[in-house]
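pinned: reference chain
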Amino acid sequence: MSLVLDPAAQDLLFREARTANTFTDEPVTDEQVQAIYDLVKFGPTSMNQSPLRVVLVRSPEARERLVQHMAEGNQKKTAAAPLVAILAADNEFHEELPQLFPHFPQAKDMFAASREAREKNATLNAALQAAYFIIGVRAAGLAAGPMTGLDLAAVQKEFLDDDHTPLMVVNIGKPGPDAWFPRGPRLAYDDVVTTV
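pinned: its structure tokens
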């Protein structure tokens, strides 16, 4: 059986998708980011939870504050990217459940009493949404450079509050010269999938 998605779209979103390491200086507009969000917000999550929060780092002052918390190998890339997004999980996501999951009015109350349950669900579902966000960046014809090599606690303190947990930083823009490392190997189907 073949996939329904056009082969060119398959290539754009998956086969040719790699972490970009250099970018041109072409700006990424607010309209482009809005279009990405308007697409990826429809990606499925558990109970329609939507804990992903995005902090766009645009000003030179904010960029400088962020770069100091990146791992040494990521600092130059983050300093040079046209746009940088901090992707975080909102641990108070349950406050939105009456609007997002209206057919189950008790959903908010299920999470209200347990910060641990909220954090677990926020992390899982925000990670799903972060993956959708990266695919959305590709769908917009841009390159994404997701990174977890950073001091997450310092980024939280610098840009967020105790109710928001940073997951990663994503550099965004048009790919620059030598943007891609060689494609890494992938596991075979039989190495991943087991039928029971």
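why pinned: The beta strands are 52-57, 83-90, 143-147, 164-173. The first helix runs from residue 7 to 15.
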